[in-house]
Amino acid sequence: METALRIEDIEGYIKIHGAPDDEYDSEAKEIAEVLAVFSKDELTEAYIVSVIMPIWARYFNLDDRDMELRLPYIRLLRAGFYRINTLT
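^ thats the sequence. predicted structure below, dont judge the formating
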């Protein structure tokens, strides 16, 4: 999960602002803990999005409009899980 979030860099903190590679580790850990109990087949895009959205909004103090703007990037994370072959 850490790798997928680092690659997608939803907030642009790593690529744009030069934040350290572990910028999203806290979020990744919480998301991974929720998703870990499910098989890859159960991890549909809709489910993954429903897990990530409230966690992301809480960590970054974002409202519904802010989250709507991030939704395309959050949807890419599911592909990232499989591309990297990890949920940790």
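The CA atoms of residues 10 and 69 lie 10 Å apart.
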